[in-house]
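Tutorial handout. Part one gives the primary structure; part two gives the three-dimensional structure as tokens.
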Amino acid sequence: MLPLPSASSPLDVQLLIDGVWRAGTGGETLPITNPATEGRVGQVALAAEPDMRDAVAAAARGFAEWRAIAPFDRARVLRRAADLLRERADAIGAALTLEQGKPFAQAVHEVSGSADTIDWFAEEGKRAFGQVIPGRTAHANVSTRLEPVGPVAAFTPWNFPVSQAVKKVAAALAAGCSVLLKGSEDTPAACAEMVRVFVDAGVPPGAIGLLFGEPAAISSYLIPHPVIRAVSFTGSIPVGKLLAAQAGAHMKRVTMELGGHAPAIICDDADLELAATSLVRMKFMNAGQVCLAPTRFLIARAVYPAFVKRFTDLARALRLGDGHAEGTEMGPLVSQRRLQAVEALVTEAVAAGAHLACGGTRVDRRGYFFAPTVLADVPLSARAMNEEPFGPMALMRCFDDLDEAVIEANRLPYGLAAYIFTRSIRNEALLTERLEAGMIAVNRIFSSTVEAPFGGVKDSGYGTEGGTRAILNFLSEKMISRFVG
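Part two.
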């Protein structure tokens, strides 16, 4: 088990192949950096091609063993993994804050919530039923059964390295598949410790594996490999399209949870205090590095000045700091490259005519900190209005009627999430019907609930994670037609 990280116990993250934690055969590593201090806090092993070859062979053996275990017995193993994850939540959360930057309370919440995800899929695995279909004649009998699709290659991001990964791992294991997880090199320790709970709970060697390394090299090896039968990816749209194309060339099943650029529509009858306090919390969670984060704020002209002022006041009051410091509400961005990307988007938006209401600059301290930023009257030509910002910046525009708001909300190829604040049933009905998004929150913000589906439309991906259908991503339906004489 991972100890609470400190200067005297740096993070040392290894690969998991065939039930053994080991270094890469090439001996290569990357440093793990604390984004709040820019200091090195550990290292992560990188996989070379021999490691990938070993991992795939182990996944094939692990699949044969794991699928043969009865669903009720698989569920017991998964429930034990969930219990271990809860027991270790503080230690794993501490590592997550150290390597990713989010406030410690948010990190622990992510880990604890991930245990609920494992519990959910443990039970879903027991209910992967087939069906009996009435025959067309007295002598015909047709039935179906659901079977695990095979070894799964899963790719997970750095912003929620536990909760995003566990959705794939728990669902695949519950279905009877083996799963080979590619974690992020930015946040490897928390991801590795999540995997460790499955190993310690009794998942057999090879049924779960973990790789880190050059993303393109790993995906190019795993996806075409004949052992791998399904691919699950969470990340950016450009990378998702590339991986989907690779999978399609080899007839591999895919699930894609990609980026978003969520509109938040505030109608003229909205509870402005509820809207502002809720949306500030969601916008600046994890320093805005959330695919569900509201980014384009579309506000009725009559309430535009009041909402922008209240939102700006709340954003300006957020307490920035190291995620381990008491009272921190927003931590740093994950890396120097994210800091530079956000800074460039803000600079370009202001140059295009946006009004800087607050923030807009790096924070004068060590670490990758960027002030909570509100930009008002942002022109549609600004790059930030067209590309996912993935940082602590809120883009404000007013509208005169709901048709105008809907047109802007649907203008982009993104379709992951949307937010609506209104007291009108008519407004709610119109907007929930017309908005092109896989998930819509009305007078609230999203919380992670595994019992509900999670996924987008358009370029934001296809397939869902969570809910009663998510396990079907990893199951194949087999039809059996019998003659009954």
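Part three, for discussion. The radius of gyration is 23 Å. The longest strand covers residues 140-148.
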